[in-house]
């Protein structure tokens, strides 16, 4: 395992590079989080032992509306094998998210981050964005956007990660 020495860290800070970006490297631990869910809070640690498909979405995001039925299908198809889809809503008003969910329900865990803490932790650049996290809490893959072409690639990564118990 490689560690940054203090000199390298000083250079990174001096250049204004976000040190948190280093945590998103494939194979590195995913940033821990606590997010408000319907009945209490959820944390990444709650899902240790499961493969987590962490999705960031907002009510105003067109591709998000398309991704929800697909994520429902993923949860249904692979949940028994250890997949947990967790969708983090980033709307500043929870009412907007709840309105979205009336017409586009999610049959997976949904949490809310109206202050936008998690997208900064995970360095999210667009909507939707997803992070695939292994059973030990390490980053397997990251993806921005959603379209038909990306579905097969993402599902292939999920299937591969579920095979590694």
Explain how this protein is built.
The protein is of the alpha/beta class and 165 residues long. 34% of the residues lie in helices and 22% in strands. It is built from five helices and seven strands, in the order αβββαβαβαββα. The chain has helices spanning 6-14, 62-78, 94-103, 117-121, 148-162, and strands at residues 34-37, 40-43, 51-57, 83-89, 109-112, 129-133, 139-144. The chain has a seven-stranded mixed sheet, covered by helices on one side. A hairpin with a 2-residue loop joins strand 1 (34-37) and strand 2. The longest helix has 17 residues, at 62-78. The model is unreliable at 1-23 (pLDDT under 50).
Spell out the key features of this protein.
seven-stranded mixed sheet; globular; 7 strands; 165 residues; alpha/beta; single chain
Topology at a glance:
Layout lengths: L5 H9 L19 E4 L2 E4 L7 E7 L4 H17 L4 E7 L4 H10 L5 E4 L4 H5 L7 E5 L5 E6 L3 H15 L3
Parallel strand pairs: 3-4, 4-5
Antiparallel strand pairs: 1-2, 1-5, 3-6, 6-7
SSE order in H/E notation?
A: HEEEHEHEHEEH
Low-confidence stretches: 1-23
Biggest β-sheet: strands ordered side by side in the sheet: 2-1-5-4-3-6-7
- Outline the biggest β-sheet: 7 strands, mixed
Task: Count the E strands.
Answer: 7
Mean pLDDT: 86
What characteristic shape results from the CA principal axes?
Answer: globular
Bin the helical content.
25-40%
């Amino acid at each position: 395992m490689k560690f940054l020495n203090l000199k390298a860290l000083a250079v990174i800070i001096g250049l204004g590079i976000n040190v948190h970006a280093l945590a998103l490297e494939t194979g590195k631990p995913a940033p821990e989080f606590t997010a408000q869910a319907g009945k209490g809070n959820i944390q990444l640690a709650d899902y240790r032992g499961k493969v987590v498909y962490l999705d960031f979405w907002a009510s105003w995001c067109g591709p998000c509306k398309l991704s929800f039925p697909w994520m429902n299908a993923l949860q249904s198809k692979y949940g028994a094998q250890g997949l947990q889809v967790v969708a983090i809503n980033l709307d500043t008003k929870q009412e907007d998210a709840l309105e979205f969910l009336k017409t586009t329900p999610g049959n997976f865990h949904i949490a809310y981050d109206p202050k936008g803490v998690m997208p900064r932790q995970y360095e999210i650049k667009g909507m939707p964005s997803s992070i695939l996290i292994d059973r030990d809490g390490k980053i397997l893959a990251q993806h921005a956007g959603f379209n038909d072409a990306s579905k097969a690639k993402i599902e292939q990564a999920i299937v591969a990660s579920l095979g590694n118990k």
